[in-house]
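Figure 6 in text form: structure in, sequence out.
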């Protein structure tokens, strides 16, 4: 097994980077627009909207939109695992048809839309990755992470909009916020360590990526813990003067204030990455690209044009939004069958929304691009804690719904312990398959425990 990248996505190319094209080779390149052009003297297609130059790694060698090439590139994707996921595309129309034709088959509608979100999110992740290669390094990685987080934001907003007194989805959102971070820190990062460690004794990553990531996660974990700790500490001290209703309102107010502060922290994080320290991260990612064991094949791989990237993003976002809406409408029926709100939010929702992101990170770890893989694990976790969760709280504030950061204390403890465990593994700047296996096993333990955790209507530490 030489590489996890798809051999089907590689095409012949007459030159390596830096070689001079002969007239016959130039003619072949013009006749076959699928082949990317590298290091040519004239590059009118290498400037996006006339604003910035497309890097060689992201150059498609074409302009505009070519349907046949577009479908071929998207179907082949960037790695074997991602290409296999595209086999699930027939579930997308099937899920839409089932929703309208047989809305009474709730389990089938839920299952089909759950599966349909995987290829849709995979296309979104692939298109985001293609677009990121056409941008400056740090901006591209952040944009790719942001696009992947769109799936999560859509799910949160749909759940929040459909939440009511009769069917309260806020516990599902709260569990999904923490579950998303846990899935990235334990399942995704653990799989990256394990898969990458199978081919080598250890992998090395830059301390700037790990230290900034774990530091921000600790701050975010602290911010998410405060409202829960406040409520739990005072819940047993309520009386006629300090009522439970007042405690809940205070916890909600603290949550909203914390959400605003976390958004400020996210803004500072962006400035740090994109402005003040962008050169450091640019050098780190450029060094990682040079270490890519499939770099030559990646440079020769057929790619999407800028316009095709936008088309793919629009198509995938449309499919993701439809599946998310249909999926959320069936959650109450699935919960009624015995699946708790906590298991739904902590395990099921994060697994489907993060599928594409996880495939990308694992592929990078396999190719020894550990800084990229680490950023794709820590970056989404930071974005969930500092952006997505605060946005859900503020959106709930605007909709006059009691969306707060007052989580189940059990889940908050899991989050903080997971951050500490991962931070300890990252401290030496090295990883191996043993650390990866341990992270994944911890996640499995959490999944088993959350299955038996009672629903909020039976027992809860953050509600009256």
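Output sequence:
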């Amino acid at each position: 097994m030489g590489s996890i990248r798809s051999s089907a996505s590689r095409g012949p190319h007459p030159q390596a980077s830096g070689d001079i094209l002969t007239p016959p080779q130039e003619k072949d390149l013009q006749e076959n627009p699928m082949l990317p052009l590298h290091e040519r003297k004239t590059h009118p297609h290498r400037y996006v909207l006339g604003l910035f130059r497309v890097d060689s790694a992201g150059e498609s060698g074409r302009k505009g939109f070519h349907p046949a090439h577009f479908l071929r590139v998207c179907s082949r994707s960037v790695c074997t695992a991602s290409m296999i996921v595209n086999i699930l595309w027939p579930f997308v129309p099937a899920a839409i048809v089932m929703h309208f034709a047989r809305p009474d088959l709730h389990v089938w509608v839920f299952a089909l839309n759950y599966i349909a979100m995987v290829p849709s999110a995979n296309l979104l992740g692939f298109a985001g990755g293609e677009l990121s290669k056409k941008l400056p390094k740090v901006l591209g990685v952040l944009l790719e992470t942001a696009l992947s987080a769109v799936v999560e934001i859509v799910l949160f907003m749909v759940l929040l909009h459909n939440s009511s007194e009769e069917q309260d989805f806020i516990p599902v959102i709260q569990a999904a916020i923490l579950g998303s971070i846990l899935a990235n820190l334990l399942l995704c990062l653990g799989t990256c360590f394990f898969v990458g460690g199978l081919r080598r004794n250890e992998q090395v990553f830059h301390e700037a990526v790990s230290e900034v990531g774990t530091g921000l996660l600790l701050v975010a974990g602290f911010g998410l813990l405060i409202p829960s700790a406040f409520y739990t500490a005072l819940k047993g001290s309520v009386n006629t003067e300090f009522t439970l209703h007042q405690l809940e309102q205070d916890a909600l107010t603290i949550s909203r204030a914390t959400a605003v502060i976390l958004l400020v922290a996210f803004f500072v994080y962006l400035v740090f990455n994109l402005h003040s320290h962008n050169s450091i991260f640019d050098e780190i990612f450029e060094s990682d690209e040079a270490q890519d064991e499939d770099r030559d094949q990646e440079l020769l791989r057929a790619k999407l044009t800028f316009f095709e990237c936008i088309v793919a993003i629009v198509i995938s976002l449309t499919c993701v939004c439809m599946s998310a809406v249909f999926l959320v409408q069936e959650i109450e029926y699935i919960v009624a069958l015995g699946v708790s709100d906590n298991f739904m939010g902590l395990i099921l929702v994060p697994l489907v929304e993060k599928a594409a992101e996880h495939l990308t990170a694992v592929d990078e770890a396999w190719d020894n691009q550990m800084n990229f893989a680490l950023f794709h694990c820590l970056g989404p976790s930071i974005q969930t804690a500092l952006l997505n969760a605060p946005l859900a709280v503020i959106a709930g504030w605007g909709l006059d719904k009691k969306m707060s950061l007052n989580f189940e204390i059990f889940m908050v403890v899991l989050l903080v312990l997971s951050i500490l465990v991962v931070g300890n593994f990252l401290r030496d700047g090295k990883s191996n398959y043993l650390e990866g296996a341990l992270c994944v096993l911890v996640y499995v333990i959490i999944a088993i425990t959350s299955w038996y955790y009672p629903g909020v209507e039976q027992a809860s530490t953050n509600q009256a």
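Caption detail: The first strand starts at residue 47 and ends at 48.
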